[in-house]
Design brief:
Number of strands: 14
Order of helices and strands: HHEHEHHEEHHEEEEEEHEEEEH
Largest sheet: 8 strands, mixed
Distance between the termini: 28 Å
Structural class: alpha+beta
Helix content: 25-40%
Strand content: 15-25%
Number of helices: 9
């Protein structure tokens, strides 16, 4: 997480003391929900985006795309179904970088309880939540608002809880009481699904089913629970700025309010909320090791006057580890004279440090590592 004690941008370029307003917001430890609970009718200046960043998609027939939905039913018992799923995963990963999965094995009751647990956490007394509000990225469980608060051009309209759940999870007492049981169950189910997805993705690359798992792509899991309060001026800000994910893959649980959009063929496309479905997207690290075969695509989250919107992003990465020496570069089995490496070998720690320092500025972190 970005630190208020590190180097931060000055207020140059702003017609007010932005840094003081950022610190006042951060030191309140009540986040965006605290602003809404206080009854504000205009959003603070620190959240206002340039108008071009908040433009909505054009509404005409030419922008209607069919978002990929992949049925995972019987993929482990029916070879024909598995081949079909692998083909669909390959196509979606190469063209969209996103897809939704249904019949994925995670019980609907677990999904709903996970969302309800996040709502319970944010409905607690502010004094309870303040005790967990911190920017210490060495901790396994933290509550904060905007990991890049002090480096971004505009703050996003959301609060978050991050929990590092694998491979070395927190002690149960470190987890918020109102979330404890469901976090442990949901992370177990997400890890199981992740193993299955990495098998499909490996086969979609023409590799053995265990290839990505053997590369430790499924070793680390961080769950980030996002809470997007209703916004009195949704046209002026964003829930999450345009970005690509800095991991191997993300498994996203979202509620039915909507707001997630993917940049597809230079157009913002809504990701339709579907009861029981999970959204999967390719991260930068998988694009790097697949040598651009699979695409890590930019996406964003809009806010509206309804809410709160709740989502849970399961991030598979080893970037949470203090010091993993493993080098990641384009997978050698995918390379040839016609398909030479596009990236240098890097550690995930090196990538993560660059991603966090850069923040959600709308540019790809991968550019820094291209050959």
């Amino acid at each position: 997480m970005a630190s208020s004690t590190g180097e931060v941008p000055t207020s140059a370029g702003f017609d007010y003391d932005r840094l003081s307003e950022l610190k006042a917001f951060d030191e309140s430890k009540t986040g965006v929900k605290g602003l809404v609970d206080a009854g504000i009718v205009e959003i603070p200046r620190i959240f206002i985006e340039p108008p071009e960043n908040t433009m909505k998609p054009a509404e005409n027939g030419d922008t209607q795309f069919i978002f990929p939905i992949i049925d995972l039913r019987e993929i482990d018992g029916d070879p024909i179904r598995r081949k079909q799923a692998v083909d669909e995963v390959r196509k979606a990963s190469e063209t969209w970088g996103f897809f939704e999965v249904i019949n994925h094995g995670v019980p609907a009751s677990t999904l709903e309880e996970m969302l309800e647990g996040v709502r319970r956490f944010y409905d607690q007394d502010p004094e309870v939540k303040k005790k967990m509000y911190i920017r210490d990225k060495t901790r396994k469980v933290i509550h904060y608002s905007n990991f890049d608060l002090y480096s971004s051009r505009a703050a996003n309209w959301r609060d978050s809880i991050f929990c590092l759940m694998a491979p070395d999870p927190p002690q149960p007492q470190e987890l918020p009481h109102v979330l404890r049981d469901i976090l442990m169950e949901y992370s177990k189910q997400t890890m199981k699904l992740g193993f299955s997805l990495f098998g499909l993705l490996s086969e979609a690359l023409g590799l053995s089913p265990n290839h990505l798992k053997d590369m430790e792509c499924a070793e680390g899991l961080g769950l980030t629970c996002h809470y997007y309060p209703p916004c009195p001026q949704p046209e002026l800000t964003l829930g999450t700025s345009k970005h690509a994910d800095g991991n191997f893959i993300t498994v996203l649980l979202q509620d039915q309010i909507g707001g997630l959009q993917v940049l597809h063929k230079d157009q913002w496309v809504d990701v339709p909320p579907m009861p029981g479905a999970l959204v999967i997207n390719i991260g930068d690290l998988l694009q790097l090791i697949s040598n651009d075969r699979f695409k890590s695509v930019e996406h964003r989250v809009l806010v509206n006057r309804r809410g709160p919107r709740v989502s849970v992003a399961g991030s598979f990465s080893t970037g949470f580890f203090p010091s993993s020496p493993r080098l990641y570069g384009p997978i050698k089995e995918l390379l040839s004279e016609e398909n030479t490496p596009k990236y240098r070998e890097i550690t995930v720690r090196e990538y993560s440090a660059h991603f966090i320092a850069k923040g959600l500025d709308g540019t790809s972190a991968l550019l820094h590592f291209r050959l």
